[in-house]
Design a protein that fits this description.
Layout: H1 2-11, H2 20-27, E1 31-35, E2 40-42, E3 50-56, E4 59-64, E5 71-77, E6 82-83, H3 85-88, E7 98-101, E8 106-112, H4 113-121, H5 124-150, H6 153-163, E9 169-170, H7 174-181, H8 185-197, E10 201-204, E11 207-210, H9 213-220
Antiparallel strand pairs: 1-8, 2-7, 3-6, 3-8, 4-5, 4-7, 9-11, 10-11
GO molecular function, one term: DNA-binding transcription factor activity
Keywords: DNA-binding, Transcription, Transcription regulation
Pfam family, one: cNMP_binding
Length: 226
């Protein structure tokens, strides 16, 4: 298990550029945890005493809107990505959001947060890699927030579909898509139907295939006029 943990850590962007000798002590402390779809890794307000790194599958990090009636997806972490990594590097950290598995199975590598902080803060190469990774993550989150605020749903959905083009792939539920795109399930369903009628996508059950990538790209860029 230590070898598999070390290999995962060495390929994680958060530790990009670090030496194997710097990661080996962390790998020795690692364990793996399997999650089913819909199972929570943690919830907002929980104490974060573990650093989580996705091994396979994906984890959605979200916050509940006021009143708890809607969810806003902050980001989705896939293989080799940290889950709520910045928070875990704080002493006595509290989870600022909830994290739930999107697929069955989803596997995450677990490391004691205190040991990770001690190792990173005491190793210049690791500290440099982590700081650079957190800077990239901040830029990504700002870009996502900008997209949610300033772009229309059609643009966001077109961009999402293009990320997986041209191979057919299984769509999340409309509720999950709505949370990812910052809207409500009814509008997602309506927009998917519109794209289908325009022959931009082929949709059968929950399997979608992009049939007009050029038009979707035009829509994703905010060009809605012919």
């Amino acid at each position: 298990m230590t070898d598999r943990a070390e290999q995962l850590l060495s390929h994680a962007p958060v530790f990009q550029g670090a030496q194997a000798a710097d990661l080996r002590p962390l790998a020795a402390l690692a364990s793996f945890r399997l999650l089913k779809r819909g199972e929570h890794l943690f919830r907002a307000g929980d104490a974060l005493d573990t650093v989580y790194l996705v091994s396979s599958g994906s984890v959605r990090v979200y916050r509940l809107a006021r009143g708890g009636t809607r969810e806003l997806t902050v980001h989705v972490e896939g293989p080799r990505q940290l889950v709520a990594g910045i928070a875990a590097f704080q002493s006595r950290a509290i989870a600022p959001a909830s994290a739930v598995a999107l697929h069955t199975p989803t596997e995450v590598l677990c490391l004691p947060a205190g040991a990770v902080r001690e190792r990173v803060f005491g190793t210049p190469a690791l500290a440099q890699a982590v700081i650079a990774s957190f800077a990239r993550r901040q830029a990504e989150l700002l870009a996502r927030m900008e997209g949610l605020v300033f772009s229309e749903l059609g643009e966001r959905l077109a961009a999402y579909l293009l990320e997986n083009a041209p191979q057919p792939h299984a769509l999340p539920t409309n509720s999950e898509l709505a949370a990812l795109l910052g809207t409500v399930p009814e509008l997602v369903s309506r927009k998917l139907g519109e794209f289908y009628r325009l022959n931009l996508i082929h949709l059968e059950r929950r399997t979608v295939r992009v049939t007009d990538a050029a038009e979707l790209a035009r829509l994703a860029q905010g060009n809605r006029e012919g």
